[in-house]
Structure to design on (618 residues):
């Protein structure tokens, strides 16, 4: 039962740039660092996703939509559901962003002291952040590991992207997305003076993505009506409006996107008429079914210089990948 | 001459999860004659002051002093297995606060990093009374609504959807659910290990005497109360080989059962081990499993 030699602390320290027992020409021994730094666990910047995308086929999901449309609540509902057990046929196998998930879930935890559930708003920023899940898909024909990145972008940024092609073109991570879920706020859809604007916002976001050439032909697009518990509570007239809207939304885009659909969810219903994460189970299962990556390339590479913007880094790599394939 | 194997085993767990009590009882078990034990003391070596002190408290059914960051110990046991294999076992007795600190500061000492790299396996301790779940507001609201539906009094008419101006309490690492903290610790260890071998993990549900009459198996406890950890262990067989064991190192409540516990002769009869194919009092069996 001899233990095979493994890395010692000295070797590990060497990885961290220390030079234990290494001496310069004067014979000075540099001390080991006292501590080894561990992963922060927060949401990832684009450049920090490189170790994940390099190692395995990675699904990139983008939840798009205006402010308070339910993007982050949808994200937290997936994580909170996994805290209770396998979800959507997926078994939790790890995450590099556990701290990030816990932070955005905090306002729906009793420890926050909040009497009603809230969701941490994604802070306005010109940078996308990414949440990571490593999942073992036991619902597939053969168990397969799926690395999943979910982009968190503020509603304000999507509004800017909707209004400006130039701003839209900076969201270069969209080109790598496997799934774009455009959320439509169900709480607005039930208001007569807000519902048409909510639909137009969603259409405008997708149209802007497409007109700016930001989506891969292989990307799957869905219009997702969030907070469907509000729609149900409002009655059959509201439900009928949503049904008509679901059909109407598909028509302008059917020949511009290879896969487009709609669904209704209630990630965190306010009343017991619908269960927690209603519809999210089916959504996640569908979004993670095997699809070809946008360019056929396995990984997203981010190696640009620090002074370049994250979105430009994605664009650079995408172009290099295309050149290699040509 | 029989070759001696030197192995390190890490005891990992949050505060008051039972690590030191396990070590105290183990120190006795490997020396007690006439009872089945997978590992036995081969010879005394080194400073045994700490081990003897905690064993004395265990004998007397006294609560052990909490291990603090200041009084952490590194103990070495010279053991042999039932197959006459010699084994030098090193077990750092680290405080639970150490692990909390590492989760919060996202770093750990270089010498601990060496232990992680060198460890043959991990005993991961969980005290069932100290599991912090993810307590969601929406779930609490739902329960409250159910209670209100059963109460027709006028005061109950108000909806709980009340806008609040109370600022939320800030988030901190200490608020993370237990299962998230333990997954994070294991992820750190897997990331830092240089060995290509899978990490062997024995999940020890301590204070098993509290649960024995209430639940089925230790694996069921993990599945029901720590499902994220259960999934993580189950979904990573290439990097983690694990088993789940229920252990009562004290044998019962030190206040209510003290007389009965003190009356156990030999003292090893206090100990309970559930979930491994071993003698039910063989506290060395989980350690032996790690070394197989």
């Amino acid at each position: 039962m001899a233990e095979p030699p493994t890395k010692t602390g000295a070797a590990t320290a060497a990885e961290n740039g220390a030079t234990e027992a290494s001496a310069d020409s004067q014979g000075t021994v540099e001390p080991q660092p006292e501590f080894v730094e561990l992963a922060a666990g927060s949401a990832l910047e684009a450049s920090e996703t490189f170790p994940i995308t390099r190692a395995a086929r990675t699904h990139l999901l983008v939840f798009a939509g205006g402010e308070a449309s339910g993007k982050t609540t949808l994200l937290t509902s997936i994580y909170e559901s996994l805290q209770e057990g396998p979800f959507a046929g997926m078994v939790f196998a790890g995450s590099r962003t556990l701290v990030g998930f816990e932070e955005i879930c905090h306002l729906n935890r009793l420890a926050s002291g909040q009497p009603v559930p809230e969701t941490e708003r994604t802070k306005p920023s010109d940078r996308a952040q990414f949440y990571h899940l490593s999942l073992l898909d036991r619902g597939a024909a053969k168990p397969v590991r799926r690395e999943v990145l979910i982009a968190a972008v503020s509603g304000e940024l999507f509004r800017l992207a909707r209004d400006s092609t130039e701003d839209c073109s900076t969201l270069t991570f969209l080109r790598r997305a496997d799934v774009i879920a455009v959320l439509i706020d169900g709480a607005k859809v039930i208001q007569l003076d807000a519902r048409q604007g909510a639909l137009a916002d969603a259409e405008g976001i997708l149209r802007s993505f497409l007109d700016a050439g930001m989506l891969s032909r292989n990307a799957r697009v869905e219009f997702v009506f969030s907070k469907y518990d509000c729609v149900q509570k409002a009655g059959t007239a509201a439900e009928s409006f949503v049904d008509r809207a679901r059909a109407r939304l598909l028509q302008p885009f059917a020949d511009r996107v290879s896969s487009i659909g709609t669904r209704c969810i209630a990630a965190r219903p306010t009343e017991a008429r619908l269960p927690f994460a209603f519809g999210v189970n089916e959504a996640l299962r569908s979004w993670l079914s095997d699809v070809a990556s946008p360019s056929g390339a396995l990984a997203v590479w981010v190696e640009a210089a620090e002074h370049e913007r994250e979105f430009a880094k994605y664009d650079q790599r995408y172009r290099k990948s295309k050149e290699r394939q040509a | 001459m029989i070759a001696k194997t030197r192995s390190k085993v890490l005891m990992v767990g949050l505060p008051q999860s039972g690590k030191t009590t396990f070590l105290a009882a183990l120190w006795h078990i490997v020396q007690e004659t006439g009872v089945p034990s997978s590992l036995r003391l081969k010879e005394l070596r080194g400073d045994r002051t700490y081990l003897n002190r905690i064993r004395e408290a265990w004998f007397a059914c006294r609560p052990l002093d909490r291990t603090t960051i200041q009084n952490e110990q590194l103990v070495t046991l010279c053991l042999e297995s039932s197959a006459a294999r010699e084994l030098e076992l090193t077990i750092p007795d680290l405080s639970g606060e150490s692990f909390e600190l590492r989760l919060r500061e996202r770093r750990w000492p270089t010498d601990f990093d060496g232990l992680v790299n060198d460890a043959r396996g991990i005993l991961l301790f969980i005290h069932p009374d100290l599991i912090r779940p993810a307590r969601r507001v929406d779930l609490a609201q739902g329960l409250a609504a159910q209670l209100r539906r059963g109460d027709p009094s006028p005061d109950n008419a108000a909806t709980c959807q009340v806008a609040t101006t109370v600022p939320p309490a800030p988030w901190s690492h200490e608020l993370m659910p237990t299962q998230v903290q333990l997954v994070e610790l294991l992820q750190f260890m897997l990331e830092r290990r240089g060995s290509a071998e899978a990490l062997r993990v024995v999940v020890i549900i301590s204070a098993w005497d509290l649960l024995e009459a209430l639940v089925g198996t230790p694996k069921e406890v993990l599945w029901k109360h720590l499902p994220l950890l259960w999934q993580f262990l189950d979904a990573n067989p290439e990097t983690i080989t694990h088993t789940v064991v229920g252990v009562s190192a004290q044998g019962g409540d030190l206040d209510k059962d003290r007389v009965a516990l003190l009356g156990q002769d030999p003292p090893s009869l206090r100990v309970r081990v559930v979930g491994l194919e071993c003698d039910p009092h063989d506290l060395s069996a989980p350690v032996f499993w790690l070394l197989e």
